[in-house]
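User: Hi! Is it possible to get a structure for several chains at once, not just one? Here's what I have:
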Amino acid sequence: MSGRNSTAMIATLGFVTALSGFLIVTVFQATKPAIEENKRLAIQKTVLEVIKGATADKHFIINEKGELREAVPGMKGINVYAGYDAQGKLVGVAAEGSAQGYSGAVDTIYAYTPACECITGIKVIKQTETPGLGDKVITDKNFVANFDKLEAKVNAAGDALANAIVAVKHGAKQHPWEIDAISGATISSKAIAKGLNGSAQEVLPKVVPLLPQIEGAKP
Amino acid sequence: MSLIKQDDRITVDTFLEGIWRENPVFVMMLGMCPVLAVTNSAVNALAMGLATAFVLVASSLLVSLFRNLIPSEVRIATYIVIISTFVTIVDYTMQALSQEVYNALGAFIQLIVVNCIILGRAEACASRNKPLKSMVNAAGMGLGFTLALLCLGVVREILGSGSLFGLPLFGEQFQPWVVMVLPPGGFLVLGGWLLFFEWLKTRKQSLAEGVTHG
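Assistant: Yes, the chains can be modeled jointly so their relative placement is included. Here is the combined structure:
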C-alpha cells in the first residue's frame, strides 16, 4: 500500500515538474530575443542621451590584457560605448558605474569627454531609491548640473585618476572633481559618486590610451 | 446532503465573490505585502494585479485538471511547482513587454509564488471544483485583487505624485504629498479604504434593520 502510494507521489511530482520545465523553456525561448533587444535598446538610448552631440554609437569591450575589441555576445571585459557625431568624429565615451545606495544598487552610465578630460553627463539606468527623496539624483536640476563638467583627469602615471571623485555636503563644493550632494538624499548622492569614482578609476586609465583606436573604429 | 456534495453550478456569485463579498485585499486581508509595496503608482498597481490574476487563473486551471491525480501528501509541493511555473512565465513575459515596469516591480513579481491568495485558491477552490468553475472563481479573485490594488495605487499616485497613470494632473505649482508614495502612505491609504468599506457595511446593516423593525 505504502509502496504504491510513494510511486504515485513520485510520478505526480515528476510529471508536474516535467510539464513545468517544458512550459518555462518554451516561454524562455520565445521571449529571449525580445528581452535582449529591450536591454540593448535601453542601453543604446541611454548612451546616445548621455554623450551630448552623439548620433551613432558603437559597443566595445576592453579585455583583461587592456586590448580593445568590438563587442560580441558572451565576451567578458569592461563595457565601453563610443559616441560619434554626424561627421563620424568621436565626441565621447560612455561606461557603466554601480554602487550600493540607500535601498539597493544604483547603476549608472556616464559619459567621458576626451576634449576636456571630464565627465559630461550621467544617467541612472537602474535604482530602487526612495521615490520623492533618493530619486532626486535623477530629477534634481542642481544635482544633475554637477555633471555638466566634472573633472576626471588621469594622473601622470596613467593608472588612476589624479583626483578621486567624491560627494561633498550640499553647498560645500570647492573643486571641479567634487559632487555637490542633495540635502536629504546624501546616501543616494554618495552612491552615485562612489559608483562613478570606482568605475572611472578603473576604466578611464585604460580607455585614454585607446582613444585613437576608438576614434579610428568609427561606424 | 447538499452540504456534503459539491455544488457544480457556476453562478454569477462564483465570479463576483472575489470582487466584493470575499475581496482578497479588503475582506480577507491576504497578500498585504505586494498591496502595500507596489501600489505607489497606478501603472505598477495595474501590472502587479494583472500578473497575479494571470497566475491565479492559470494555476487554478492546472490544479483543477489534476485534482483527482495529486496524492494529498504532496499536494502543496505540487501546487507550488505549478504556481512558480506560471510566475516564471509572467516574469519573462513582463521583461519582454516593458523593461521599465519590470524594474519598478522588482522582486515582487517573483514573490507572487508565495502570495497566499493563490495557494489559498488552489487549496480551497481549485482542488475541489471542476476546471471551468475554478477558473471563473479565480478570475473573479484576480479581478478583485487588481481592483483593490488600483484603489490604492490611484489614490497614492494622485496625492503623492500629483499624476495619474503618469499624466500630470495639477500643473507645476502642486506640491506632492511625498509620504503617500512612501511605505507609510500604503498603510494610511489602506486604512482609509478599510474604514470606508466598514462604514458602507455598517450603514447597509442598519438600513436593513431599520426596514425589518420599522
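Chain A has a mean pLDDT of 83. Strands of chain A lie at 56-62, 68-70, 78-84, 90-100, 105-113, 118-126, 150-151, 166-168, 178-180.

User: Great, thank you!
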